[in-house]
Specification:
292 residues; Rossmann fold; seven-stranded mixed β-sheet; 9 helices
């Protein structure tokens, strides 16, 4: 995406207060030269990082987006859950529709390596919720392992492709079209919740999502949380250019007090997940069990 070589970027202006209070190592932010500033604004238009004060929209030199497309012929249409008053993910959904509107899979068809490594902790037949699962790579794989999987995402185009992927793999996933703000976290208790690379959320929304994850888990349920560490902003190989959206282990331990931590790690690894995530990345793993 043209992010290689970017220096660590300053926090999004709308989240500076959160960045100052966020646990974890401090980052030194340098002024951005005009050329880098332009590239930063390009990223924000692609990612919809409204906190930068940059409106989402067409980018000069970018591949033109096709108009949002309805479900392809022969594929079931996804259904959108009712959105509570005051909670809409329409703007975010439109941006992700544009990113997913391509012939290949933006983040590949294989699950995140973290999901493969940690799936052994699940029991046969476990009910699993895959949060904001985009084109379905994690939910489809989990369903293929024999788990009862529910997945949701705000992007109609992403869900359309997820259904196609599930059909090609012979996997049965209960897909829903809904954003994180509209999802009814209390509707069904799950044995496990998988939230993989959901760092489109700034600190305020992240707090609400984390509360939702806790609500969705049954007592004794398993939390599978995976994403980027703050230094990922400097690597520029995936994720939004907002350091405060990233995780630290201290932040996650604080967010889920009383959980029995089964695995936690902060490390660098080479990620090969389609054109969307590719190269050396700063990773955070967090696997914990909710108190019974």
């Amino acid at each position: 995406m043209g992010t290689a070589g970017l220096r660590p970027l300053s926090p999004c202006p709308g989240h500076r207060a959160h960045a100052r209070s966020m646990p974890g190592p401090s980052l030194r932010f340098e002024p951005i030269a005009p050329s880098l500033k332009q590239e930063r604004e390009t990223l924000c238009r692609i990612l919809g990082c409204a906190a930068f004060g940059v409106a989402a929209g067409p980018v000069s030199g970018a591949v033109p987006r096709r108009p949002a497309t309805p479900a392809r012929s022969g594929l079931p249409r996804v259904r959108r859950r009712d959105t509570p008053a005051g909670m809409t993910d329409d703007a975010s959904a439109a941006r992700w529709d544009g990113r997913y509107d391509r012939d290949d899979y933006l983040f590949g068809e294989a699950p995140a390596a973290f999901v493969e490594r940690q799936a052994h902790r699940l029991m046969p037949g476990d009910r699993v919720l895959a949060v904001a699962d985009g084109e379905g790579r994690n939910s489809v794989w989990l369903a293929g392992q024999g788990f009862r999987v529910t997945a949701f995402d705000a992007s109609a185009r992403g869900l359309e492709k997820a259904r196609a992927l599930a059909a090609s793999k012979g996997a049965n996933v209960d897909f829903h079209l809904a954003g994180v703000e509209a999802w009814d976290w209390a509707a069904t208790p799950y044995d496990a919740v998988a939230a993989i690379y959901i760092q489109f959320a700034g600190p305020a929304l992240r707090d609400r999502i984390f509360a939702g994850l806790d609500t969705a888990l049954r007592p004794g349920g398993l939390l599978l949380l995976h994403g980027f560490a703050p230094r990922q902003v400097g690597y520029g190989t995936g994720g939004p250019p907002c350091a405060e959206n990233m995780y630290t282990l201290e932040l996650l331990r604080t967010a889920f007090p009383g959980y029995d931590i089964l695995h936690q790690a902060d490390y660098d690894a080479v990620v090969e997940a389609g054109p969307g995530h590719n190269g050396l990345a700063a990773m955070i793993d967090f696997v914990a069990r909710k108190p019974a």
